[in-house]
Every structure is written in structure tokens, then in C-alpha cells.
Amino acid sequence: MADTSNIIEIRELTKNYGDRRAIDHLSFNVKKGEVVGFLGPNGAGKTTTMKIVTGFIAPTTGEVKIAGYDVFEDPYEVKRRIGYLPETPPVYGDMIVADYLDFVARLKGVESSRVPGLVARALEKTQLTDVRKRLIQNLSKGYRQRVGLAQAIVSDPEILILDEPTVGLDPRQVAEIRRLLQELRGSHTIVLSTHILSEVQATCDRAIIINGGRIVAEDTLTGLTNRLRGNSQIHIRVRRNASDLAQALERVSGVTEVEMSGMQIRVQGHLSDDLIEKISEAAVQQRAGLLEMTQPDAGLENIFIELTSQH
After folding, report:
1. Does 6-226 match 231-297 in CATH topology?
2. I need a surface site. Which of 1, 10, 26, 304 has the fewest CB within 10 A?
3. 275 pLDDT band (50/70/90 cuts)?
4. What does pLDDT average to over the chain?
5. What class does CATH assign to 231-297?
6. Is 24 left (phi over 0), alpha (psi -120 to 50) or beta?
7. Residues 131-153, mean pLDDT to the nearest whole number
């Protein structure tokens, strides 16, 4: 029986452009109400995946279901449930902001009686109320990006697919978009496609990292951090005999690299409780005067580099 908590289901998704494979047998689920970061370096296949999920292009092989509806067998039902912000906002420059949002809401099949209220809500949430009567083509890039986000949320969709929503924005505008995403979480399922790691740390529950068209990791941010700690570092600070301790640590099984700087030593290796115990025993045996032994946080940037450089 299908898991009804999965509002997005992707199975063995593949897309070829001639002899180039953009995405390669991707499979993942997104649960209702989740905020998921879809990460990868430029050219990893993020945008292609989002275009397939939203029905803009067809896959070579594979299946995508949104709330139980097949993207290509029931495209109308799927599009009613999705608000999509592509990397380049789909706005009409010769339309007035409020009229454009009214047009998008009706295009999505929203009942006429609900349209004015939803347009007002979208204007308020994206801080566009003051420019609602202006032509879109006369707005700055930051405001046009907000209009693109407003069109994604104006129909009050169950799912938001956002491809690089803060690209080209200044720091203040980026902070405003992050605040909006925090407000939308819980009432919407959000897939945030980006290569900006701080976006994921600020807004997401879980991350899916792809590289070369394949998934290389899928976990919560905490889970990814713990995963990398299995092959990470320990920083040691001692009072004396640092050189003798560094030499002793190089002989410890499981240690792959030792680097000394003054009375501080960085130990790299496949960390486990047993290895940590061996390191502390070596410090005692060398009478090094152990003052501190810490394991630094892996950090999402380090996680990203580690996982995408392995493939």
C-alpha cells in the first residue's frame, strides 16, 4: 500500500538530452508539510528535475506523482496543487502587479469569490502591496523576483517548488524571502532547489544532495553532520610534548593524518569511540598534559564539498 503521507513521489526518474544524461534514476519522496532542500552544484540536474516534477518537460523514463496524481496522466490536477517559481520568474512585464496575480489565480482554477482575498494575501506576504498598481516591467529585479514568488503562492497551493528563489537579490531581500519561507512552512510542502547552502540551513528540515544527476545523500541536516563525523577530525590542545604525541598518533590504527601547530594537533581519521579512546590514551602515555579534545561541527559547507567531490 502506498504511503499516503508522501505528497511527492519520484521513482527512477531519468532524463537524457541526446547522448548526455542530465538526471540518472532519481528516486525520493517528500512528505506533506516538509521543507526539503534540493542541493547540488551548478549542472547537477536540479532545474531539470524541478521542470519534470512540475510537468514542464517530460522525462525519458520514470514516474512522478503529486498527491497521488501522475504528472503526465493528470496534469491539470497536478498543476492545481503546485506553485512553481522557476529560476527566471514567469512574469508579464506589460501587466500591472495585482492584475497579473489575479490572472494567475484564475488560470489555476481558483474560485472567483476567493481570488481577491488570495491576491491581497500574496501581495502582503511578499511585501508588494505598495507597488500593486505598477507595471511589472518598471520594477527592480528584486521586486520582479517577489512578483514571481507571489504568483507561486497566490492560488494557495499545497506544494511550492522554488528554483533559486533568492538569486540576484541583495542581503536585505534575501532575509525577507527567508522570513516568508518560515511563515509558509507547515501550511505548505516546500521543495527549495538551490546551491546556496545558507538557504537550506535557514529554512529546511531535510536535504537531498545530487551530483552528476544522481542522489549522493538524503537525510536531515543533523543526520548528514553525524554521517560525516565518521570520517572527520579531532582537535587536541596540550601543555607539552606535542611533537612526541603527534608522532605517537601517526602510529595509531585508524588515524589517516596528523598535523601539528604549536601545542595544538589536528587528527584526521575514521572516528569511532574506540579511536577517540586510543587518542586520549596516547596523550596520557606521552605525558602531554591534555587540556582539550574537541570534534568540530562538520558544517553544511563541508558536508556539501565532501559528498559532491566523492562522485
Report:
1. no
2. 1
3. confident
4. 87
5. alpha beta
6. beta
7. 92
What does 72-86 look like in DSSP terms, one character per residue?
A: TTSHHHHHHHEEEE-
Looking at residue 29, its pLDDT comes to 95
- Three-state secondary-structure class, residue 59: coil
Determine the 3-state secondary structure of 291 from DSSP: strand
What residue segments make up the domains of the chain, in order of their start?
Answer: 6-226, 231-297
Q: How far apart are CA 94 and CA 100, in angstroms?
A: 9
Q: What was the pLDDT predicted at 225?
A: 66
Reported as a single tens digit per residue, the pLDDT across 220-243 is 877 776 665 555 788 999 999 999
Averaged pLDDT, 161-184: 84
Given a contact cutoff of 8 angstroms between Cβ atoms, the answer to whether 157 and 189 are in contact is no
User: What's phi and psi for 156, nearest 5 deg?
Assistant: 55, 55
∠ CA(10), CA(16), CA(18), 5° rounding? Answer: 170
Q: Is 19 exposed, middle or buried (CB count within 10 Å of its CB: 0-12, 13-18, 19+)? A: exposed
* Residue 20: how many other CB atoms lie within 10 Å: 8
pLDDT at 2: 46
Q: Rounded to an integer, what is the distance from CA 106 to the centroid of its chain? A: 30
Q: How many CB atoms lie within 10 A of CB 166?
A: 23
Residues pairing with 232 in the sheet: 269
Class of residue 212 by CB neighbours under 10 A (exposed 0-12, middle 13-18, buried 19+): middle
CATH superfamily of 6-226: P-loop containing nucleotide triphosphate hydrolases (3.40.50.300)
Q: What is the 3-state secondary structure (H, E, C) of 224-248?
A: HHHHHHCCEEEEEEECCCHHHHHHH
